[in-house]
Amino acid sequence: MVNITYDTAGSIVWLNAATDPPVEVVYSPGDIAWVLTSTALVWLMIPGVGFFYSGLLRRKNALSLIYMGMITLATVALQWFFWGFSLAFSDTASPFIGDLQHFGLKGILEKPSIGSHRVPALVFCIYQLMFAAFTPMLAVGAFAERSHLGPLLAFVFAWSTLVYDPIACWTWNKNGWAKKLGGLDFAGGTPVHISSGTAALAISIYLGKRKGYGTDSLAFKPHNATYVILGTIFLCFGWFGFNGGSALAANLRAAQACVVTSIAGSAGGLTWMLWDYRIEKKWSAVGFCSGVIAALAAITPGSGFVGAPAAVLFGVMAGTICNFATLLKYFVGYDDSLDIFASHAVAGTIGNILTAIFAQKSVAGFDGFTEIKGGWLDGHFIQLAWHIADSASGLGYSFAMTSIILWVMHYIPGLRLRVPEETEIIGIDEREMGEFAYDYVALRRELKPTAYSNGTTTKPTMAQRNA
What we know:
This protein is mainly α. It has one domain: Ammonium transporter fold (Orthogonal Bundle). The protein is built from 18 helices and three strands. α4 runs antiparallel to α6 and α7 runs parallel beside α9. The C terminus is likely disordered. It comes from Agrocybe chaxingu.
């Protein structure tokens, strides 16, 4: 029996009959509506990543990246149902990983969530599913242009279980070691951006370079800047739900998170674009969009803790450091086709460190109930050490575990990820999907000679056509 009623104001009241005397917990329909709206906003970010990545690639692989977004969401939705939510957010979790208390979403309905007593567990569950699906989508972009699509389903399921769920548990679960230590990560600096960016680095090293990479830079130019801009629009729009929704209530703290998100993204886009302009003296739309994404990743952990002036610094630092971090692949010698490590792992680390410095008790208290000791601005200097430890743990754990998953799959028949050279030359869309992002005929004419009605590749004469 579900112990819920509605008071005269329309608020939902849950009665915990297990206590003596029974305790009433009041849920606000407005808070529930805001979190569910934020869920839809974050959902939109997943195809947004697909369009952003697709535009950065060559035309013959454009559809596969958009496809990856939807198939990742579907795979993680089932993983989250089976045990993902329980491993990350069970009440009886260890400092590192949860148990199967909520296997198959058992016991997930009207009781208060572990994230906030102001929303039911069911609402919190579906909201967190969007984070769980968005994170591996960031990482699988590293498979672009040189990976089989079928084994990706197994990789996403395994990676979500072995990498994302433990990091989410130690960061956000009340029993997690980073949470208990005092780490401040509002919306996913370590669980989302550091974990996915570092996984992309491991994937890039495992797969090796694409054919021709490093010899013909023009051949690897983004094929559709419009897709890049469209993906950025989806991501910016959804990020208000990503950061603002993490307040789990429609309150002043959620509004502040939205404000600093907008400021940081704007500063980051302009900064990256200006750094690119100094080299080519051109105003790059792709550069601007790259800076926006890097800055949004950086502000994510601090969005519920920092003020508007600090948000400008988050954007400028991310737009600068992440721009130069894209050069790492040339010095180290790996092929990160979409610069995911630079744009997410580096940005997430920047965000964690700046959050430790600029977090304020007053900002966190905008919701009326959150109390923190703050960062360096509030004289709490140990916060920086905690955040460095958390960032290093996320970097090391994600890289090691992702590498293990990749090499285990490498030796399992049917799960090897790297495609043959011929498939890479023709394109993933042609060989793995048999479908294309653009006109079928035009692409086939690029790949092989046209067969005319006379059965040859020679255009028929007027007499032959009239015969």
